[in-house]
Structures are given as structure tokens and as C-alpha cells.
Amino acid sequence: MPRNRLYRDGRLAEEDFPVTDLPRLLRDEDAVVWLDLCGPTEADLAVVTAELGLHETSVEDALEVHERPKLHQYDTYLLVNAYAVTLDEASGRLTTAELSAFVTPRALITVRNDDRFDMSALTRRWDESSELAGSGVGFLLHGLLDVVVDSHFDAVQALDDHIEGLEDLVFAERPNDPDMQRRALAMRKSLVTLRRVVLPMRDVLAALMRRDHAVVDRRMTPYYQDVYDHVLRASEWTESLRDMVATIRDIQLNLQGNRLNLIMKKVTGWAAIIAVPTAVTGFYGQNVPYPGFNEVWGFWVSTVAMLLLSAGLYRLFKRRDWI
Predict the structure, then answer these.
(1) What is the CA radius of gyration of the chain?
(2) Residue 283: pLDDT band by 50, 70, 90 thresholds?
(3) Class of 4-256 per CATH?
(4) Do 194 and 159 touch, CB atoms closer than 8 A?
(5) pLDDT level of residue 121 (50, 70, 90 thresholds)
(6) How many secondary structure helices (H) and strands (E) does the chain include?
(7) First vs last Cα of the chain: how many Å apart?
(8) Share of residues in the chain with pLDDT > 90 (%)
(9) pTM value?
(10) For residue 306, which of 210, 256, 260, 277 is within the disulfide window of CB 3.0 to 4.6 Å?
């Protein structure tokens, strides 16, 4: 897969050029360059830093792991940090792919510490909307942000499906509580991670559309607005899913409490029924004379009393739904 591209006059002109060609290409006023640095070497960074005049703190931010999503504006360029996400359908766990981008008037430089970000999806997005390539870096940056936000949206939708399955498990006739708790915890962790990467993207998109710079031209503004709308929907959906997971957890605890109360009620009812024959036999087991002592009819009286009292308690408890 190509890790760099050169657009000239709104058309793809060249791919797979070495990093050392960057100074020569940027001298062409009609050229727009995308360069991807995955695990960059010091030599690669030196060429890019020298040519674009990057501030040392911005380079540190681009190479730092777990930076929050943000847009930082310098004198001659922008630094964008963002995360694409993928959801494991089986476990419900979310993984993130961090990416930083230096945005100049005629170059987009993406920096990654690993290869988890799907660059093939990015190049496909550019190829699908190649008629917008005349907008230069604004076109390239839009494709990047669109891929990132689409990954957020796909993850939210998949999590929504998982949560619906979790709701079905809560009201199952024989719920598997340990499995349900494990899945609910995984969902909660995934939503916390997703919230951390989705919510700041609202500020990134809002700043790109609000600030007066040459990256986003009038032609690309509606497309950025569309990405911003997707960010808002994803963030609102994420917040609602967090509330749903918390609600499911509360319902699960309430149902567990209700089931426990029902079990205790039934156990208590049967204990009361069993207590009747115990009381009768205990009475007739006294070592003192009583009515029916040493008589056959005394045995039958005690037996009939146990049966009648137990049956009466059973009917009473059954009518009141205690057993």
C-alpha cells in the first residue's frame, strides 16, 4: 500500500516517493503532498522537521503515546491528534489506533507509532471522492477525519447491538449472572474509552470550521459540516449508551434482589409447612400421658392433624403467592 502521494492540479500524480524527495516536491507550487510516517526514524523526522519548520513540542506530541484528541495551531501549520477505533464483536472490547497529523497549506504528514490505523481505508476514501482533490490539503484532511469519525460511528452502532443483547440476557428465564456481569463490565470499559476519543473530536471539527485559515475552503465546508454532524451523533449516542449500561446494571441488581426475596419467601413457606408435622410429632413424643396415649386412634388423629394442617398452610401460601 502506498504510504505517500503527490497530487498535482487536483489529480493523483505520483506515489511511493522517498521521504528525501519532500523538499523537492514542496517547491512545486501546484503540488499537494501526503506523507505517512509509521514508526518514523530520526532521519525521516529530521527531513520533515527541517522542511516544514516544525516546533519541537509538536514533534514530541506527535510521537507521544496516548495524547488526547486535539487541534493545536502553530504559526504555519496545525497539529491534529485523533483516534480510530475498532470493536471486537466477540468480547465487546474496544481497541484504539492513535494518529497525529501535521497540516500545512500544501502537505499532510501523518505520524503513527504502530500500524493499527487502517491506511487502506483512508486511501479508498480519497479515491472514492477524487473529484474533490482540487481542494488540496483540505480534501486530504477531510478524508482522514471522515475515516476516524466513521470508525467511531461503527463502534457505537456495534455497542448498541451488544447492549440490546445484554438487555435480552437480563430478562432471560435463567440468566447467567457471571457472564452478564462480565459483558456489562466490558461494555462499560469500551464506552468509557470511546467517550474519551469521541467527545474531544467535536472541538477539533468545530475549530477547523470556525478558525480563519486556508485549510478548509468554501467547497469543502459542507463536507466538514457533515463530519461534524456525525461526531455530534456519535457523542450523543455514546452518552445515551453509557446511561443504558448503568440502567441495565441497576435492573440486574434489582432483579437479583427480587429473585432472592422470592426464594426466601418460598423457603420460608415450605419451612412453615414442615414445621407443622414437626410440632405434632414433637407433641406426641412427650413422655407424659395425653389423649390417645398408647391408643391406635391417637396415631391416626396425629397423622390426620399433620396432613390437614400442612395442606391448609400450603393452600394459604399458594393463594398468597408465597410458594
Answers:
(1) 35
(2) low
(3) alpha beta
(4) yes
(5) very high
(6) 8, 7
(7) 68
(8) 28
(9) 0.77
(10) 277
